[in-house]
Amino acid sequence: MSSHWMPAWKCPICKSGHTVLVRDSLVSHESTTSKNSRGHEAWDPDWIELIFVAWGKCSNERCGQDFSISGTGGLEEFWNDEEGRDWDERYYPKMCIPMPEVFDLPTKCPELVKKELTSAFSLLWTSRESCAGRIRVALELLMDHVKVPKQADTKDGKRYDLKLHRRVEIFTEANPAVGAQLMALKWLGNAGSHDGDVVLQDLLDAFEILEHTLDEIINERSARVAHLAAKLTSRHTPSK
């Protein structure tokens, strides 16, 4: 984003408007570390580190939700045909309250799953590993929703807790395609919990998978489409 523009995120409150930067609301200051670096012989404008706060507002006048935004920024080089080499300020949000949804959650999404995914959305910019961890918890809760067992019996009749990996395997036995996609989310959650090797694209991919799998599980999209196809076939297949 810049001092006069921000991305048009869909408003999570009204679902119809989008975020617009409030005019002249962005205020930035150079960090102390950045100021101290100016004496270095190799200093260049792209060393500048800014800290900013700004206000956004929902474009839907009936909603008018305010958004508090903060993050970091700096100078990015560009070529000006008249002046030659030039610099422009660019800002990168780290926090937004309320946080826009990365994707639209199904209306019938279980509240506990929705709560964890909302937390995951808010952590996307600040802690990728924690974001992956919330996705893993949401997956556990999704297994609860579809009634995959939490426990099993040993040969001698003792009860033990099933790990998420096994629960996803059980779900996959009845739903191979969706189950394979959920297993990918489980591996991402493991990475967030253990080795921390999570990049932004991993999380964006995970949210795209979640958007699809929730549509399949909660909204039963494939089943609905199959029903519609069967209905059309029965109505329009020529009789022999």
**Class of secondary structure makeup:** alpha+beta
Report strand %.
15-25%
The global form is extended
Helix-strand pattern: EEHEEEHHEEHHHH
- CA gyration radius, whole angstroms: 24 Å
Kindly describe this structure.
The chain has 240 residues and is α+β, with helices and mostly antiparallel strands. It is built from seven helices and seven strands; from the N terminus they run ββαβββααββαααα. It has helices at 32-36, 111-123, 128-145, 164-174, 176-193, 200-217, 221-236; strands at 19-21, 27-30, 50-58, 66-80, 84-97, 151-153, 159-161. A hairpin with a 5-residue loop joins β6 (151-153) and β7 (159-161). The protein is extended.
What secondary-structure arrangement, pairings included, does this model have?
Elements: E1 19-21, E2 27-30, H1 32-36, E3 50-58, E4 66-80, E5 84-97, H2 111-123, H3 128-145, E6 151-153, E7 159-161, H4 164-174, H5 176-193, H6 200-217, H7 221-236
Antiparallel strand pairs: 1-3, 2-3, 3-4, 4-5, 6-7
Helix pairs in contact: 2-3, 3-5, 4-5, 5-6
Outline:
It contains 7 helices and 7 strands, in the order ββαβββααββαααα. The chain is an alpha+beta fold and 240 residues long. Strands 1, 2, 3, 4 and 5 form a 5-stranded antiparallel beta sheet that branches.
Question: What are the salient characteristics of this protein?
Answer:
alpha+beta, five-stranded antiparallel beta sheet, two-stranded antiparallel ribbon
